[in-house]
Amino acid sequence: MSKFIENIHLKLPELFLKAGLKDITLSGYLSTLLLCDQRHNTREIQEHIKARLNLWRKLEKRNLKCSLLGGMEKEEFEELFYRYTTYLKELFRKPEKIKKTPEVEIISRAIVKGEK
Description:
The chain is α+β, with helices and mostly antiparallel strands. It has one domain. It contains 4 helices and 2 strands. It has helices at 8-18, 42-58, 60-69, 74-93; strands at residues 22-34, 104-115. Strands 1-2 form a two-stranded antiparallel sheet. Helix 2 runs antiparallel to helix 4 (74-93) and helix 3 packs across helix 4. The longest helix is centred in the C-terminal third of the chain and has 20 residues, at 74-93.
């Protein structure tokens, strides 16, 4: 899968050292989201779901390639893709379901910095 998913942030410290940069630092950030968290604005969560659906559609071919390399059958991926996009569309169309959905999303980010 690594040839399809480039974790360049993991390679940056080595590249920065090779480029002669100094004072290299790495900072990590973790974002969490619970759909049914009552503190969230439902409209904002709907927009997040819409963006997630658009991203899933955009990356369909890449995700299929990765899944096939990992041993998943094409039919299994197609069923997963259909179920997931249907699930997201349903949440977007029926926002009242958002506050009843205990889905947790966790995203990590890394920022690498170096000075010349």
